[in-house]
Design a protein that fits this description.
two-stranded antiparallel sheet, alpha/beta, VWA domain containing CoxE-like protein, vWFA_dom_sf, 45% helix, globular, Uncharacterised_CoxE, single chain, 474 residues, 5-stranded mixed beta sheet
Amino acid sequence: MSAETPPAGTPESVLPDADENRRQVLYWRLLARLFDTDEQAALETASLAVVEDTGLPPALLDPQVSVDSIVQRHPELAAEFDGLMACEPDPDGTRDRAAEVRRAALVSKVLLNVFATGSGTVSAGQLAGWQSDAGWLERALGCRPGDLRGGRGGAAGPGVSPTGTGRHPGTPDLSTLIPAIGPDLAALEADLVKRMHLREVLGDPALAARLTPSMSLIEQLLLDKDNLSGVALANAKALIRRFVDEVAEVLRTQVEKATVGPVDRSIPPKRVFRNLDLDRTIWKNLTNWSPEEERLYVDRLYYRHTVRKTSPSRMIVVVDQSGSMVDSMVNCTILASIFAGLPKVDVHLIAYDTKAIDLTPWVHDPFETLLRTNLGGGTDGTVAMALAQPKIAEPRNTVVVWISDFYEWRTETLFASMSAIHRSGAKFIPVGSVTSSGRASVNPWFRERFKDQGTPVLSGHIRKLVHELKTFLG
């Protein structure tokens, strides 16, 4: 009896499946390459045979070849990578095992390129290649490139919620995967940035041009900015400016959807074409319809009221600029500048570690604000409170947003001051995280007391903070 022929009477459910074996070969190779840099000859040979048998290019097995390169040579594969790991199951519950083999080859390619980062010095080209591959992984999970690693406002991709817990209709629930993988991708990127000779790269305009700004890269630039000069400093500033503009574009779209205050009908509408209420104009003039001429004569035009009642609101944003809060510092600095551009919103910005600095004079320019921060160090919120409290002139018309992990030095003293702000009538919003990944480490002591006070810590996606602020201003 040959190895291919099962014994008589063997149930169909346990018959060997060639496609299942092929799929297992690909995943065993993936695991072997992730945990051991040495190639396993038997797995490599078997995987090559599987890939060729499925009609896929052998370059999929080469970890030195990026997904971009694969797609450039084989454009038809781009659609297969999109949503690859959020694919819709077969409606009748059956499994297309041949399709699963093909999918396993593509999934293995993305995962190996992203998670097998090796060791040693990283070049600007290698970092750019990894960022591109990480973008393909995010696309495979149903997100847009950059969403899970954070830094661009975290605008979720189609069908994905702010924390990645949503899904396309009929797709698997990725809620347990995406919140966990986002911070891990960011950590991998941060490690690659640290392994790169950043100062040398910045000093070479050609190499600096290959860098793609990301939260990890911006963190390193802000930490090292005082050690840069000349061309390197200019390139660093250009990268920070580019990143700030990208994030601001996303956040501005979210903020500008706000309607601040009800319509003020005491002010006559401005008689311009964009305010013309065409439906009301037609309705009010229907009595002037001429059936013989089939023409409507308009005696009066009606316009919409667009001016809204607003009252000056003061927003005080206090941001912990210690090393663990870099992404919050970047996002909230930009967010503060956007709200500062709204009518009748008086925004103040304070950053602190063991010292506090009032950044209000530069709040309209997040780029200049970030250049004045000093990331890292310890945390003492009482020094920031000393600057924030005197700014609360009209508590009922003031919102205080405090962004920190709340691992503080003088906990009792700081919390007592925060409670006093809450009792005064001001709206106090403690924020533990404003990242795209949604992962936050908040001091449990503060978390429980904020909850008991009725001001629970806001953690997760920055859109939650935008919503809270728009509600207050409305």
